[in-house]
Design goal:
543 residues, alpha/beta, Rossmann fold
């Protein structure tokens, strides 16, 4: 087994996840079987209970793992599904060590960070290759060099290199090489100090990925190589690009994958990047744009909707338009009104979320989309809000609501199903992961998916209340997707509308650059048609 450890230094948010995903893509396209995982030093067992304002999106895997958003990048770049074991947190590690100690698993020994915590980390790193069909395990270590909480993880990785040998373990370190505009100079000192921090704990990086705004000339590369003790050809320029999907091709041009296979002594063919190159060519050629509003609760932190952003990118490429996301705070819709807050958009998406804040704004945005025939997609809470709005404004159930927001509301059109309890615990107690969904023939959903049964990922507790299904359908809300036994509503749509559809699941989690999700593809296609129709009408009026 071969191991690649991706670390970061100088500052956070440099893009270690994109770097790790790009390395994985390049190796996979060379015929190398790759597994990839993320080590996060925080003490939460998983990010499921963390605020989106602090952590961003929670990415859900097929098996119900609530994980870091970087796993979304891994899945999209490698086009392979990961599991909950692809995300390892300090919380999981310490929980396992303490539970083992409580059950007598250490036979009376003094339990310490070294070797017991580091051994648990190493076990979880190696587990990524337990299936036997893996050649290389790529492990991204979250945080920044020098963080106290990250030291046990870095120590475990250092031990891995000591045990497995330098021919089987390499370190790729991502650093910032700032350009001081006033002095018109590139500064290498932050990189040197970051590498020094790794050297102090016994880690010598083999490859440096240098984030930079400007090209790195031979003199700068040579200086970095000399002072950081790496080969000059292993100083890789990671210049800013217009899209993350350009990164793998840029790394390939820099020779990154050649260096890695050489260091790891892997015999591999040249990468087949033709499909990726076609994607970039098509993306680059786009000239048209279409504006779609995302009406959410966490729009100040766009990382909270990372997979939605990427799903729009994928759908936009396939529709030959650039999706311009208009971020609209649901509370602003409450203050300004939907007509003002959503003026000029060709489509509306209401995403998931938790809690009552902003619900009135989401309901108003959905009503605006429904009454004005603006293409609409609701996701998770977005579906629930669509049902509430329809029940109120079409079915005439004025006090329809969700029991999440008002446990004693008289008409809980959204409710917990019988047997759904969580005993007061929050973490890992929702309907999580992939569930099958049966599509009703002759519906928009059937047309979009071109399938009778699908599998989609969930992250929610509340469901559409079956007691109101007959009323909703009688008034025109079609239930076009259900669980195989028909007991759970998965998709609703309005048939006499250009595009009005909502899903209880999260379609954005399964979108891929070369295979956009059908619901996003349909929304962008409908929004493009809406924009073109309005543009044509405007030209006729002016003529």
């Amino acid at each position: 087994m071969k191991y690649i450890f991706v670390t970061g230094g100088v500052v956070s948010s440099l893009g270690k996840g994109i770097a790790a995903a790009s390395i994985g893509l390049l190796l996979k396209q060379r015929g190398i079987r790759v597994a990839i995982q993320k080590l996060d030093p925080y003490l939460n067992v998983d990010p499921g209970t963390m605020s989106p304002f602090q952590h961003g999106e929670v990415f859900v895997t097929d098996d119900g793992g609530e994980t870091d958003l970087d796993l979304g990048h891994y899945e999209r770049f490698l086009d392979q599904n990961l599991t909950r074991d692809s995300s390892v947190t300090a919380g999981k590690v310490y929980q396992a060590v303490i539970e083992r100690e409580r059950s007598g698993g250490y036979l009376g020994k003094t339990v310490q960070v070294v070797p017991h915590v580091t051994d648990e980390i190493k076990t979880r790193i190696k587990a990524a290759g337990a299936s036997g069909d893996v050649d290389v395990i790529i492990t991204e270590i979250g945080g920044t060099t020098g963080d106290i909480e990250g030291l046990p993880f870095l120590e475990a990785c250092r031990q891995m290199r000591h045990e497995e040998g330098a021919d089987n373990c390499i370190f790729v370190h991502l650093v910032l090489v700032p350009y001081i505009k006033a002095a018109k100079e590139i500064k290498t000192k932050p990189t040197q100090h970051s590498v020094k921090g790794l050297l102090e704990i016994g880690i010598q990086p083999d490859v440096l990925l240098c984030r930079t705004e400007v090209p790195l000339g031979p003199e700068i590369r040579g200086k970095i190589a000399l002072f950081c003790n790496v080969r000059e050809r292993a100083v890789i320029e990671a210049r800013d690009v217009t899209s993350i999907y350009h990164v793998p091709l840029h790394f390939h041009r820099e020779g990154l994958d050649d260096i890695i296979v050489t260091l790891l002594h892997i015999e591999a063919a040249e990468p087949d990047l033709a499909e990726w190159e076609r994607l970039i060519q098509r993306m680059t050629a786009i000239e048209e744009g279409v504006k779609i509003a995302v009406v959410g609760k966490y729009v100040q932190v766009q990382d909270a909707y990372k997979s939605i952003i990427e799903a729009f990118t994928h759908a936009g490429v396939q529709n030959d338009v650039h999706v311009q996301v208009e971020w609209v705070d649901a509370e602003d819709v409450e203050k300004l009104g939907a007509e003002e807050a959503l003026r000029g958009v060709a489509g509306i998406l209401v995403p998931g979320g938790f809690g009552e804040r902003g619900i009135s704004g989401k309901l108003e945005a959905i009503r605006h989309a429904r009454e004005n025939e603006i293409p609409f997609l609701g996701i998770c809470l977005g579906l629930q809000c669509a049902v509430i709005e329809f029940a109120r404004d079409v079915c005439g159930i004025a006090d329809a609501l969700s029991s999440e927001f008002s446990p004693n509301c008289p008409h809980p059109v959204i409710d917990l199903m019988e047997g759904q309890t969580h005993g007061g615990k929050k973490g890992g107690t929702m309907r999580l992961g992939a569930y099958p969904c049966r599509i009703k023939p002759g519906t928009l959903a059937a047309d979009l998916y071109d399938a009778s049964e699908i599998s989609e990922r969930h992250r929610h507790r509340w469901e559409v209340n079956n007691e109101y299904r007959e009323t909703l359908e009688r008034h025109g809300l079609a239930i076009s997707g259900t669980s195989p036994d028909g007991s759970l509503v998965e998709i609703v749509e309005i048939t006499d509308h250009p595009y009005f559809i909502a899903s209880q699941f999260h379609p954005e989690l399964k979108s891929r650059p070369n295979r956009p999700h059908p619901l996003f593809f349909g929304l962008v296609r409908a929004a493009k048609s809406q924009r073109n129709s309005h543009s044509s009408s405007a030209r006729q009026v002016s003529a």
